[in-house]
Amino acid sequence: MRKPSGIVAAALVAAALLLPHPNAMADQAAAPALTVSLVAPAQRDWPETVPASGWLKPWQEAIIASETSGLRITEILADVGSVVKKGQPLVNLSRDSVLADLRKQEAAVVTAKAKLVKAKADGDRARQLQPSGALSDEKITEYLADEQTAIASVDSEQAALDSEKIKLDQTTITAVDDGLITSRSAELGAVVSSGTELFRLVRQQRVEWQAEVSARYLPRITEGLTVKIDGPDGQPVQGKVRLVAPSVDTSTSRAIVYVALPTDVRPRVGLYVTGAIELRTTAALTVPETAIVFRDGINYVFTAGKDNRVKRVRVEAGRRNNGEVEIVSGIDPSAKVVTSGGAFLSDNDLVKIAGEG
């Protein structure tokens, strides 16, 4: 009967030796989970912004077309991407037939003027002889009528000559304004018709952002507001609201805000970019972006108490700017927030504060 008691006693002694000492367990439990840095939320004055997205499009686009018909393109002097000045030649059309018509019309003017000289002489003679009765009233009326007809004929032929000169000028198609050519449909040797589009031109190289915004923001958006755009090359671009569209798209409940870009900024048209319209400046309580821990679709931060234990606090995030996040609700301005490493912490963890002995 004593033998089993001895075995039990030996087992208890062995278990006691294997179990850790209570002091060792306490030391292990008290070991900090992480060394962290703390920061107090900062008070900032940040502009309230409206998010927007849309296309970069020309401020105004000009269509350069032929004003005459039946002439062949003999020379093309510009291409897509060319920066041109107002009045700069872009296309030359064949001029032979126009020059021939011009010479013909010049001869017609000379003939009409010669007839006018004769008619005027006959009219002067008729006016001189009218008191004497040497000419009949019928003949005098005929001479005077011929004089008026000759005058009208000269005016008509001169107008036709001016028209031919205009046609000659139209054989050289020029830029209607300073700008950048974005498309070309002119082809060498093609016979053009009146109104045939040859080029498209971005006037003055001015590009604007046509930003789509929710209709609920429209009452607060006015001309002249500052706009910050995420540039295509990653560099921010600052613009100004030029115009707010008077109508709202009924299918999307969004409206277009036209944003003028600086004249020295010329991004490519047709790009889709995002940005924000600054409404007014308001106070913001902010923490570093690295302090935010995102779990299960919820934003948290960890705050540290005097006992160096952290507490997970649910917060509502707002605006973001320069690596900081606005905390709309959830923390007290006097709280001490863990700046980074929150993803490795749990509620009530003991931490070591950087800079403390």
TrEMBL record:
Species, as recorded: Rhizobium leguminosarum bv. trifolii WSM2297
Domain named YknX-like C-terminal permuted SH3-like: residues: 284-351
Signal peptide: 1-26
Family that this chain belongs to: Belongs to the membrane fusion protein (MFP) (TC 8.A.1) family.
Protein name: RND family efflux transporter, MFP subunit
SUPFAM superfamilies: HlyD-like secretion proteins (SSF111369)
UniProt keyword terms in alphabetical order: Signal
GO molecular function: efflux transmembrane transporter activity
GO cellular component: efflux pump complex
